[in-house]
């Protein structure tokens, strides 16, 4: 059936599109289209440059990669699109990388369109095409005309997720964008868009309506008017993923998008899922496709995210069993009836070892897609991968990404896994050098790897700080360590300082495998860490002895425990041996997890439709998922008040907030007290105040319900009534976490999908922390009470620390008078000077210690003839000059001075020092601490 673009069927779609745009704030598809609505950076945005956020890393575990684009004329120049951490560029073959896109409206990358005729021109489609539960969304297409130095937004804002960007090989003004569209809801902004004027205007040249977006788009290198589009009908809910539908399929145009027809001859029929196409560059008549479908008559299978054990035994022939290894024993008294020999099994249906969840198969066309032939039932976990790659120099050599990177040298007859124990799993993007087939680059959930010998050996580009953290905590050591869990990279511990002067990947210590989530360190006995991988797989680690023990409660009073993908663990602030974990009921242990008891009823809606999602998934999805990511009706956030023992709040993924004031004896569902909150949204955080006993904050994240509005509330009566704190927050920026300041009762820190914000007036107004801090999802924040550090877990740019002593000192709001705002402590820590000669392929996060930092605000520039001195008074009473006016910055606004705590050349003694700033005849005072080092190994 021929499909005509919107030129021919404009009347059918124009009313829908116009009505949508009229109701939205995004504007038409023209030059200058606004990005996501811009909100004020806040009253403090112009004075915060002195905060200097520090990217800590680590980088030995990367993050999900969506695309790789290599310059044709120079393969040493290539770009890497990370799923949620921006666009990175190397000009030296990967020895070093620079982030060239990290301050856009979104830094979730979908696809790179690199012009072949003018490599300075780059089109960048935002919003990763990966459709997993942790997927980040984008805000359309950006363009650079100077190889990534500067960018401007050129439209398609509400496409949200972009599968491919394809640029005409000789005319860079002609560009096509494959828009997958919204993941969590239906939308009209799906299909193939075309621009003939470099992105000034866009036409929707192919659409399947509001259900199926286009996830893959390929161009015939010999005829740029011939393109192949793969439409994919898919939709996520918080508890269910549907892949496949009647609108999915593979389509072709031979006139630059004016007309399209579906390719069917030789391909599977019925409901299809995700598909992808690879064009053989030397002979574009040859196409390779992977197609997600259900083999007729095969049993419905459900995938398991972590199971890569011999799939031949488990899922041979798409649900059928393999023959037994030995013949069954015969009863000697019975004579077997002669049988016709069984038909020889089709070798193309036998699955490849190490293949995770085959969902369909591979098909080959030798006539540009007019007819297709079945090659092999081989399509690893299609919703997540679907990236076939034909070697541009040999069409029999094919690479398929999946849990492992697999290669066949003979057109699909035999397969091998490439270095499964050397390179990370889950491969999404690949480039094969058209001039040298030995040269490969692959992008996976662990970052970027490069091979020069056709995959025999690999080099890991482990300087990309793109880790996708879910949570962070810190311990009681000085200097302190941080702990956190990452998407597909387990749980890790990392020091914030190192005697050699910098922290790098070799300092990181692995805590657990799988996908990492909460990793809570004991502040009192810092050798104990509680970490968790998906589905509540909690363990206790004693870092001093090396002992690890599983502590997950498997059942609750005889009933199966139901855990979220990201299960919360919480250590009581009143007894460090008491810990909580959330299932459908709140579980408590008073002996570090050795034994457990339930202290609540089921704190969820107990919706049977959502709990029994697997049976539903089998009906709506071509290949159902059961990875744990869809577990629902579970507790996802826990907090016990630091001001009163037994005062606990819990939030669930299905929209409930419950409170107990008596340690779990009685519970109140306070959800109905929250004004304007839609039903069923994910309660992303509950947080008790440590300034007012009855104050409770609630963050709500609605994006899994296709609701991107900010929901932030506070109660001053323990949940009886709530009021909104969302004033001035962006409608597209879902909220994840809120914390109070440790020294400033009016200070709030807010983490969201696109920003890190704070308020110094208890939430009346919000400012954004910028400086060198990128646009990135902030999933967790903690405030260190002694060091005055804000520790930030980003889902795309790893861990950060930010000295917020100045913010802690803004107790009276935006400063207007000269004075010392705050001081962060120094540490009596010897530092070994001098770097090892490690070359440039070595990530270093420079220490922020042993320095103490003194923040002072100047109402006006200091006059040149003013006498300026900065002194400290020792605990013994001696006053020591540490700086004069020539050593200090003395301009209007916030300033900072760093003091290496030494007196007369020696390390200053531990204690509290009085700080005095003298400007002319005026003096301003504060105090700064010098701390001794402390380690759990010293106990």
- What best-fitting shape do the alpha-carbon axes yield? globular
| Class per helix and strand makeup | mainly beta
Which range best describes the helical content: under 10%, 10-25%, 25-40%, 40-55%, 55-70% or over 70%? under 10%
Count of DSSP-assigned helices = 5
Cα gyration radius (Å): 29 Å
SS elements, strand count:
72
Distance between the termini: 76 Å
Strand content: 35-45%
Low-confidence stretches: 1-35, 305-332
Mean pLDDT: 90
Please summarize the sheet with the most strands. Answer: 6 strands, antiparallel
Give an account of the 3D structure.
The protein is mostly beta strands and 939 residues long. The chain contains 5 helices and 72 strands. The strands form 19 sheets. Strands 1, 15, 16, 17, 18 and 19 form a 6-stranded antiparallel β-sheet that branches. The chain has a 5-stranded mixed β-sheet with strand order 63-72-71-66-67, with no helix packed on it. Strand 7 and strand 8 form a beta hairpin. The longest helix is centred in the first third of the chain and has 14 residues. It is globular.
């Amino acid at each position: 059936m021929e499909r005509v673009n919107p030129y021919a069927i404009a009347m059918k779609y124009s009313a829908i599109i116009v009505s949508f745009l009229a109701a939205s704030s995004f504007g038409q598809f023209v030059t200058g289209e606004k990005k996501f609505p811009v909100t004020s950076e806040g009253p403090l945005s112009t004075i915060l440059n002195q905060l200097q956020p520090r990217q800590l890393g680590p980088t030995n575990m990367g993050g999900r990669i969506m695309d790789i684009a290599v310059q044709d004329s120079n393969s040493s120049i290539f770009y890497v699109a990370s799923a949620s951490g921006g666009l990175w560029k190397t000009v030296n073959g990967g020895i070093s990388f620079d982030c060239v896109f990290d301050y856009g409206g979104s830094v979730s990358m979908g696809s790179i369109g690199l012009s072949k005729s003018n490599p300075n021109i780059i089109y960048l489609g935002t919003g990763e095409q990966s459709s997993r539960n942790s997927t980040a969304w984008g805000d359309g297409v950006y363009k650079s005309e100077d190889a990534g130095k500067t960018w401007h937004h050129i439209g398609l804002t509400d496409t949200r997720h972009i599968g491919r960007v394809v640029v005409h090989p000789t005319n860079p003004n002609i560009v096509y964008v494959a828009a997958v569209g919204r993941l969590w809801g239906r939308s009209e902004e799906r299909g193939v868009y075309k621009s003939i004027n470099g992105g000034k205007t866009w036409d929707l040249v192919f659409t399947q309506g509001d259900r199926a977006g286009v996830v893959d788009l390929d161009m015939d290198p010999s005829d740029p008017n011939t393109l192949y589009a793969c439409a994919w009908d898919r939709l996520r809910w918080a508890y269910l993923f549907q892949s496949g539908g009647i609108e999915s399929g593979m389509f072709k145009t031979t006139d630059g998008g004016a007309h399209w027809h579906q390719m069917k001859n030789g391909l599977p029929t019925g409901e299809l899922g995700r598909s992808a196409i690879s064009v053989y560059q030397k002979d574009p008549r040859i196409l390779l496709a992977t197609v997600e479908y259900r083999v007729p008559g095969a049993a419905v299978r459900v995938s398991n995210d972590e199971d890569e054990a011999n799939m031949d035994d488990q899922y041979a022939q798409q649900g059928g069993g393999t023959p037994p290894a030995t013949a069954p024993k015969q009863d000697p008294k019975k004579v077997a009836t002669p049988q016709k020999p069984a038909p020889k099994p089709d070798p193309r249906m036998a699955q490849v070892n190490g293949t995770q969840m085959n969902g369909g198969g591979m098909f080959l066309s030798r006539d540009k897609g007019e007819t297709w032939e079945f090659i092999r039932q081989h399509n690893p976990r299609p919703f997540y991968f679907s990236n076939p790659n034909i070697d541009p120099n040999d069409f029999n050599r094919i690479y398929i990404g999946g849990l492992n990177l697999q290669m066949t040298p003979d057109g699909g007859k035999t397969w091998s896994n490439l270095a499964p124990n050397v390179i990370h799993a889950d491969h999404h993007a690949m480039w094969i050098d058209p001039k040298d087939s030995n040269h490969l680059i692959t992008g996976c959930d662990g970052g970027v790897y490069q091979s020069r010998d056709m995959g025999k050996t690999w080099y890991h580009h482990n300087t990309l700080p793109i880790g996708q953290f879910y949570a962070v905590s810190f311990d009681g050591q000085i200097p302190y360590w941080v702990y956190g869990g990452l998407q597909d990279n387990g749980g890790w511990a990392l020091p914030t300082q190192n005697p050699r002067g910098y922290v790098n990947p070799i300092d990181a210590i692995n805590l657990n495998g799988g996908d990492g989530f909460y990793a809570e360190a004991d502040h009192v006995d810092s050798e104990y860490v509680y970490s968790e991988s998906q589905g509540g797989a909690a363990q206790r680690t004693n870092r001093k002895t090396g002992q690890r023990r599983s502590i997950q409660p498997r059942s609750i009073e005889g009933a199966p425990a139901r855990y979220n993908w990201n299960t919360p663990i919480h250590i009581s602030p009143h007894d460090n041996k008491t810990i909580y974990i959330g299932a459908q009921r709140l579980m408590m242990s008073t002996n570090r997890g050795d034994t457990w008891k339930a202290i609540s009823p089921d704190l969820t809606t107990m919706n049977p439709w959502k709990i029994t999602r697997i049976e539903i998934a089998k009906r709506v999805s071509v290949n159902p998922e059961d990875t744990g990511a869809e577990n629902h009706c579970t507790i996802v956030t826990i907090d016990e008040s630091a001001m009163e023992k037994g005062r606990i709040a819990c939030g669930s993924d299905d929209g409930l907030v419950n409170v107990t004031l008596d340690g779990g004896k009685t519970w109140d569902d306070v959800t109905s007290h929250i004004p304007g909150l839609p039903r069923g949204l994910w309660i992303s955080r509950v947080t008790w105040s440590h300034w007012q006993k009855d104050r409770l904050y609630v963050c709500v994240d609605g994006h899994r319900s296709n609701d991107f509005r900010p929901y932030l509330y506070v109660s001053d009566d323990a949940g009886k009534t709530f009021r909104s704190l969302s004033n001035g927050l962006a409608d597209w920026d879902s909220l994840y976490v809120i914390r109070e300041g440790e020294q400033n009762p009016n200070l709030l820190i807010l983490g969201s999908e696109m920003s890190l914000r704070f308020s110094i007036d208890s939430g009346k107004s919000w400012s954004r922390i910028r400086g060198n801090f990128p646009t990135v999802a902030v999933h967790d924040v903690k405030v260190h009470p002694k060091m005055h550090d804000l520790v930030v877990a980003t889902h795309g740019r790893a861990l950060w620390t930010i000295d917020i002593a100045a913010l802690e000192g803004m107790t009276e709001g935006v400063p207007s008078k000269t004075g010392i705002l705050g001081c962060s402590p120094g540490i009596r820590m010897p530092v070994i000077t001098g770097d090892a000669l490690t070359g440039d392929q070595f990530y270093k996060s420079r220490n922020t210690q042993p320095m103490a930092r003194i923040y002072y605000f100047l109402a006006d520039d200091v006059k040149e003839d003013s006498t300026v001195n900065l002194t400290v008074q020792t605990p013994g009473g001696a006053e020591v000059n540490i700086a004069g006016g020539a050593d200090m910055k003395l301009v209007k606004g916030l300033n900072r001075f760093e003091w290496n705590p030494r007196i007369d050349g020696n390390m200053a003694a531990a204690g509290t020092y009085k700080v005095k700033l003298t400007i002319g005849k005026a003096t301003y005072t504060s105090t700064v601490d010098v701390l001794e080092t402390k380690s759990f190994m010293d106990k």
